[in-house]
Amino acid sequence: MNILLLGATGRVGSHIVNYALLEGHHLNVLVRTPEKVQIDNENLSIIQGNVLNKEDIIFAAHGCDVVVSALNTDGTTTLSESMPLIIEAMEHEGIKRIVTIGTAGILQSRSTPNTLRYQSSESKRKSTRAAEEHHKVYNILKQSALEWTIVCPTYLPDGERIGNYRIEKNYLPVDGVKISVPDTAEFALRQIYTIDYINSRVGIAY
Questions:
Q1: Angle between helix 78-93 and helix 54-61 axes, rounded to 10 deg
Q2: What is the tens place of the pLDDT at every residue in 155-194?
Q3: Quick one: which of 22, 48, 61, 119 has the most CB atoms within 10 Å?
Q4: Residue 148's domain is classified under what CATH number?
Q5: CA-CA distance, 44 to 130, in Å (whole number)?
Q6: What's the 3-state SS for the chain?
Q7: What contacts 143, CB < 8 A, 6 or more positions away?
Q8: Residue 95 near residue 101 (C-beta atoms within 8 A)
Q9: pLDDT tens column, 54-70
Q10: In this predicted model, what pLDDT tens digit does every residue of 123-159 receive, in sequence order?
């Protein structure tokens, strides 16, 4: 499969690069700093550009079947500002499927119906800024015509790839407290093969 990967130099994104290449996919990665991608592989195309430039995204998306976004918030509004541009680029290139990495904060609260976890007592984080960014992206995707899935990990230590974890549609698995970066990346990549979580958020935890 031909994949456009955004956020390839981040914690989750760098693992997605490795797993996708191991599985034989062709990857286009759009990065601001190409030298950060220290991999030489004939199936990897490194494209310098910015997710805040729609023409860069269109160029990188050309010929791709699916978009995987592992962009993070990084204390900026890049996440929510880039999503409308990503959607426009996907529509331009006729791509319907996108898998993104979100946060458990935007899953539904069990204790307070009709609110999200970051808006309820379930969230232990003092700052809600990152969750608010992810919430904006969730709302933008809901209003699109794309087939989207938002993978929503809870506390995300580097850890190891265990391959055994719990998942739940729109909720965080009960008593889930963490999930490793490699397992999150593995699960996110697996979503390009399945329609199980189309137009859904997915909570993931051990």
A1: 50
A2: 999 999 999 999 999 999 999 999 999 999 999 999 999 9
A3: 61
A4: 3.40.50.720
A5: 30
A6: CEEEEECCCCHHHHHHHHHHHHCCCEEEEEECCHHHCCCCCCCEEEEECCCCCHHHHHHHHCCCCEEEECCCCCCCCHHHHHHHHHHHHHHHHCCCEEEEECCHHHCECCCCCCCEHHHCCCCCCCCCHHHHHHHHHHHHHHCCCCEEEEEEECCCCCCCCCCCCEEEECCCCCCCCCCCHHHHHHHHHHHHHCCCCCCEEEEEEC
A7: none
A8: no
A9: 999 999 999 999 999 99
A10: 877 789 999 999 999 999 999 999 999 999 999 999 9
- CA 88 vs CA 32, 52, 81, 84, 122: distances in Å: 20, 12, 12, 6, 35
- Pull the structure tokens for residue 102: 């979100």
Task: Quote the number of domains for the chain.
Answer: 1
